[in-house]
Design a protein that fits this description.
Radius of gyration: 20 Å
Structural class: alpha/beta
Low-confidence stretches: 327-333
Helix content: 10-25%
Distance between the termini: 31 Å
CATH superfamily of the largest domain: Ribonuclease Z/Hydroxyacylglutathione hydrolase-like
Bound molecules: zinc ion
Oligomer: single chain
Number of strands: 19
CATH class of the largest domain: Alpha Beta
Order of helices and strands: EEEEEHEEEEEEHEHEHEEEHEHEHE
CATH architecture of the largest domain: 4-Layer Sandwich
């Protein structure tokens, strides 16, 4: 990768502006697309992020980080490089980062999805010459159902469990999927409890301005008679731990894009699978790329080899940005 952005072993780097985007080694200045652990790492001297990420970044990286914030629709300049943030639709506050220098425009997507989930902000196509796209689910086999259908499946599962006097334990990433579920499910079915890590994220996002429907922290003080008929949202790391005992009798299900792959579903031993991802599917990636109008595309995360070849067949100039850590699995915490 060469030009306004290049690649070093600390991550994606802008030589003209002397800053990095989502670097994985400690650097001087880090521009952060969103608060997931594989993008927002501790130890940088200073951070620049979109305003909606303020409290969630402090929760995850420490209250004492040096953090500058930029609103959507505003821009700032570092050594002549114009910088702005644009909604990526992936999780709350997730942003694409647009850079412009002497008329040349690059956009680094971070993680994104094109379907509007009603909570994370609508993905905004941004015109550019060079686009750096994630390809976490960059194979034609990945094709998501509309969110409304998957949410209806989850509601049906919850309702059926409630009718049998059972607790519904739903495994979802603490940052992103958990709030997307919370925002969209039918709260008339019953009460919604969340595990501790999810509660902490919820509180941080509420301080960042998110409006979440009612949820209750499943604290040790709560009488276990309250759980039958309710929905409990928790990261999948809780499954099989003694923490789960108080929800008996219960059913477990997992919601993730990876649930489309049968082998993963079996291996995780986490009950029923609902296929829903916070990343773009094959069609979503292709739509996003076309909409940028870019004639040069770099791919990162996931099925990069396949996707690069596909782009070249479409007549685009394409390359791969190697990343140290891969995929959505890391975000499960
Ligand atoms: Zn992410
Ligand atoms: Zn990611």
């Amino acid at each position: 990768m060469k030009g306004l952005l290049t690649y070093t072993d600390s991550g994606i780097y802008c030589p003209q502006g002397d800053f990095f985007i989502d670097p994985w080694k400690p650097v001087g200045k880090a521009l952060i697309t969103h608060a997931h652990a594989d993008h927002a790492r501790p130890g940088h001297q200073s951070y620049l992020a979109q305003t909606l990420n303020k409290e969630i970044l402090k929760l995850r990286l420490g209250a004492d980080i040096r953090l500058e914030l930029l609103n959507y629709g505003s821009s700032t300049s570092i050594n002549g490089v114009n910088i702005s943030f644009h909604p990526a639709g992936h999780i709350w506050g997730s942003s694409q980062i647009r850079l412009e220098y002497k008329g040349e425009v690059w956009v680094a997507s971070g993680d994104y999805k094109v379907e509007n989930d009603g909570f994370s902000g609508a993905f905004e196509p941004v015109k550019c010459h060079t686009f750096i796209t994630e390809t976490t689910f960059g194979l034609p086999v990945f094709k998501w159902k509309p969110q409304s259908e998957v949410i209806a499946q989850i509601n049906d599962w919850w309702r059926a469990n409630a009718a049998e006097g059972k607790t519904s334990v739903l495994c979802a990433y603490a940052l992103g999927k958990a709030q997307r579920i919370l925002h969209n499910i039918d709260h008339l079915i019953g009460k919604v409890f969340v595990q501790g890590a999810v509660a902490n994220v919820n509180q941080a996002l509420e301080r960042d301005g998110a409006k979440l429907p009612s949820w209750v922290y499943a604290s040790p003080e709560i009488d276990k008679k309250e759980y039958p008929g309710s929905l409990v949202i928790t990261p999948s790391s809780s499954v099989g731990t003694s923490w789960m005992r108080k929800f008996q009798p219960y059913e477990v299900a997992t919601v993730s894009g990876w649930m489309q792959i049968r082998g993963i579903k079996r291996r995780r031993n986490s009950g029923q699978g609902f296929v829903m991802s916070d990343h773009a599917d094959w069609d979503g990636l292709n739509q996003a790329i076309v909409d940028t109008g870019a004639d040069r595309v770099y791919v990162t995360h996931g099925y990069t080899d396949v996707f690069r070849k596909w782009l070249e067949q479409q007549g685009l100039e394409a390359g791969i940005v190697e990343t140290k850590f891969e995929g959505e699995v890391l975000e499960n915490q």
